[in-house]
């Protein structure tokens, strides 16, 4: 019987981790599929050990891995090394999965003969009014409008399933240099795409991401857009046949974005918060592309945030 190893990396989010693991253990699996849950604890103190021990003691298929070296890449690599399944899925410790999440990813991988499958990550806001605008439209980009089986060039590890044998041949697939800045998932999956691996979208494989008030501000939202653009651009430049030419190719489009949307954002700011947010997202995307090489310590000292 095929086995799916589900890896959750966590640090200092015990309640979120508990909710995430509960949603994975509640998966409605097909009869021909088994599941194991791997909790990778990236806190120095091993804060998630009691949670994993409690579940394992109750007979749940949960294993614990302590990766004390801070960094999301280090934590994900530890999860890959511990996984025993033919398939490996990642989910984050601030997310919960729909009951058919694993089944739908697995089914799509088989039906479309794909190597990597990814699906929607839908926001759950603690207090939506704190944003001052409706953020929902900005979570539905081109990929979220795709039908299942649509081809992608990269995927995010908040919701993804890999075929182990096709995707993980090296000892440390996630680049440790990106352990503090993030973008390690885009880097890996884009690299696999360049190597000929097939990445598909699975529209009905849904997880929900919790956004607390301190994260769900317009400033934080715009920063995330810039970081995402940096990650995507960095991956494409690093793995291009001609990195310099690829990097320079982003410049004219990014400058045009700035020339168009920066004035529109400035004009909209005093009158229409929604339009300002939409224009500002384009501005941050352009800035991310232009500063892709400027990698900050996005995860601070906490490790796999």
Mean pLDDT, all residues: 90
- The level 1 CATH classification of the largest domain is Alpha Beta
Q: Can you tell me the CATH topology of the largest domain?
A: Spore Coat Polysaccharide Biosynthesis Protein SpsA, Chain A
Our count of helices gives 9
Radius of gyration over all CA atoms, rounded: 19 Å
Instruction: Give the biggest beta sheet.
Output: 8 strands, mixed
Q: Which architecture of the largest domain would the CATH scheme give at its second level?
A: Alpha-Beta Complex
Fraction in beta strands = 15-25%
Given helix and strand content, the structural type is alpha/beta
**Envelope shape:** globular
Tally of individual domains? 2
Q: Assembly state here?
A: single chain
The string of secondary-structure elements, in order, is EHEHEHEEHEEEEHHEEHHH
Strand order of the largest sheet: 3-2-1-4-9-6-10-8
Instruction: List unreliable stretches of 5+ residues.
Output: 297-305
Query: Which superfamily, in CATH terms, is the homologous superfamily of the largest domain?
Result: Spore Coat Polysaccharide Biosynthesis Protein SpsA, Chain A
What's the helical proportion of residues?
A: 40-55%
* Amino-to-carboxy terminus distance: 33 Å
Care to count the β-strands? 11
Chain-wise SSE layout:
Elements: E1 3-10, H1 14-25, E2 34-41, H2 49-57, E3 62-66, H3 72-82, E4 87-92, E5 95-97, H4 101-111, E6 116-118, E7 121-125, E8 151-152, E9 159-163, H5 164-167, H6 184-194, E10 199-201, E11 207-211, H7 218-238, H8 243-268, H9 273-290
Parallel strand pairs: 1-2, 1-4, 2-3, 6-10, 7-11
Antiparallel strand pairs: 4-9, 5-11, 6-9, 8-10
Helix pairs in contact: 6-7, 7-8, 7-9, 8-9
């Amino acid at each position: 019987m095929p086995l799916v190893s589900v890896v959750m990396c966590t640090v200092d989010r015990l309640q979120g981790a508990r909710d995430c693991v509960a949603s994975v253990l509640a998966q409605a699996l097909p009869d021909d599929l088994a599941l194991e849950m791997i909790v990778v604890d990236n806190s120095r103190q091993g804060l998630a050990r009691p949670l994993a021990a409690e579940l394992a003691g109750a007979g749940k298929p949960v294993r614990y891995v302590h990766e004390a070296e801070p960094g999301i890449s280090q934590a994900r690599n530890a999860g890959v090394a511990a996984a025993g399944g033919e398939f490996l899925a990642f989910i984050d410790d601030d997310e919960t999965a729909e009951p058919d999440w694993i089944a739908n990813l697995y089914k799509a991988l088989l039906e479309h003969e794909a190597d990597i499958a990814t699906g929607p990550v839908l926001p759950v806001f603690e207090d939506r009014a704190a944003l001052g605008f409706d953020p929902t439209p900005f979570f539905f980009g081109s990929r979220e409008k795709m039908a299942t089986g649509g081809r992608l060039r990269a995927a995010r590890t908040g919701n993804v399933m890999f075929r182990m044998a096709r995707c993980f041949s090296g000892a440390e697939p996630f680049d440790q240099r990106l352990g503090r800045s993030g973008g390690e998932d885009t880097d890996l999956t884009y690299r696999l795409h360049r190597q000929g691996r097939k990445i598909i979208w699975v529209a009905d494989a849904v997880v929900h991401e919790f956004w607390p008030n301190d994260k769900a501000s317009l400033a934080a939202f715009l920063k995330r857009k810039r970081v995402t653009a940096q990650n995507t651009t960095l991956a494409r430049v690093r793995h291009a046949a001609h990195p310099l030419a690829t990097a320079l190719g982003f410049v004219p489009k990014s400058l045009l974005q700035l020339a168009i949307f920066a004035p529109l954002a400035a004009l909209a700011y005093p009158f229409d918060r929604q339009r300002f947010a939409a224009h500002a997202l384009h501005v941050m995307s352009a800035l991310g592309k232009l500063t892709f090489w400027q990698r900050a310590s996005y995860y601070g000292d906490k490790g796999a945030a």
